[in-house]
Design goal:
Chain lengths: 259, 125
């Protein structure tokens, strides 16, 4: 049975979009049928990264109840040869759409949650998707908490920045725990040396103390990834890069149902 | 006399009717017991309160667990919820009815079964 994964973080700039996109691409490489959804309605970025300018139906329209889910799914499988299937549901990046989404009330958010929950039936059970990957807004936003409630697994991206660590710890106790969500941590932009076994073990011990949740992966700070400027999908174009290999390990762990 | 004759003719239906009424009464009792157990009485029946995620977050843990199970299952009986939460059916029945009283869930009877669900679409924003 397929899984819904929400990628979330306390602060912005932790690499949620980078992780979501590359994790989705890695699953596709592993032969899976994947749908990546941009639930960051305040700062949509997947449309830009994937170079898609105009669409008849955005994810916004599905949540508004004005478009069926089939209409918002964009099939990008051609861009991902030799693998599974890749679909995306994109957030409308226009200023007007962002403004409109930020002014929604509680009842709208409740209905939006219902539509996110309905994706399990419409996409996973009916259309056989293996993974739905939700890229979310940072912090305690309605759209992000909706995504977390609808998800089976929450991947929390965090850096070692002090305010990020503190905020992430709070969210673990006061958000994910309350919803009884399976939560795993991915550390990103790490400067400590994790190339050696003792270095990695020391970091893991430290993390276990700080967060009390399983550590799914540690991604060092790669200047190459930053140099890419979000112009291409790293995991796809640089198969030999350590970043790609770490993503593959993470996808492997999720795939083998270890997490 | 007429009632007695009726009883003689359809004892099964009458007994079933009594059982149904007792079950309804039982559910009401469970709600009252729950409200007593968890402190203050709810002031009055709230009409159609939205069960959004912020409401879920601010709920007491025991009710959130039940409400989350309803979110997951969509539409379910107390028994189905109890299977998910691994708590007793009677406990879930009480919590579900409490959520109905609070206006977060709707309840619909189909024969002998009572189904609980979040009525998201009928609540106009």
């Amino acid at each position: 049975m397929g899984k819904i994964i929400a990628v979330h973080s306390y602060k912005g700039g932790t690499g949620k979009t980078l992780l979501s996109l590359n994790l989705a691409a890695t699953f596709v490489k592993r032969g899976k049928k994947v749908c990546l959804m941009d639930l960051d309605f305040r700062a949509p970025s997947l449309a830009t990264i994937l170079k898609i300018e105009k669409l008849d139906c955005w994810l916004n329209d599905y949540l508004n109840g004005t478009c069926e889910v089939d209409k918002i799914l964009l099939n990008l499988t051609e861009r991902f040869p030799n693998g599974g299937e890749m679909f995306v549901g994109l957030a409308n990046p226009s200023t007007e759409a962002i403004r409109e989404m930020s002014a929604k009330d509680r009842k709208w958010e409740m209905r939006a949650l219902g539509r996110l929950l309905a994706l399990r039936n419409s996409l996973i059970e009916t259309k056989g998707f293996d993974y739905l990957v939700f890229d979310t807004s940072p912090g305690l936003q309605y759209s992000s908490i909706n995504a977390i409630v609808a998800a089976d697994l929450v991947l929390v991206a965090s850096t070692f920045d002090r305010s990020d660590v503190d905020g992430t710890r709070r969210m673990l106790r006061e958000l994910y725990d309350l919803f009884e969500k399976k939560t795993d941590l991915i550390l990103n932009k790490i400067l400590q040396d994790v190339s050696s076994k003792p270095g990695k073990e020391a970091l893991q011990a430290k993390i276990k103390d700080v967060y009390q949740v399983p550590l799914l992966g540690v991604i060092p700070c790669f200047c190459d990834v930053l140099k890419g400027e979000g112009n291409f999908i790293f995991a796809q174009e640089k198969p030999e890069h350590p970043f790609t290999k770490i993503l593959d390990e993470i996808a492997g762990k999720i795939d083998s149902n270890n997490v | 006399m007429a009632a007695q004759e009726g009883l003689g003719k359809k004892p099964l239906q009458v007994l079933e009717k009594i059982r149904e009424n007792l079950e309804k009464l039982n559910e009401k009792m469970e709600v009252m017991i729950e409200l007593q157990k968890h402190g203050k009485r709810e002031p009055e029946l709230l009409q159609d309160a939205p069960l959004d995620v912020m409401t879920l977050l601010s709920m007491p843990d025991h009710l959130r667990k039940t409400a989350m199970a309803v979110c997951r299952l969509g539409r379910a009986t107390a028994e189905e919820i109890a299977e998910q939460t691994r708590r007793a059916r009677a406990v879930e029945s009480a919590y579900l009815n409490q959520l109905v009283v609070m206006g977060y869930l709707k309840k619909e009877r189909k024969g002998r079964k009572a189904y609980f669900f979040v009525d998201r679409e009928s609540q106009e924003g």
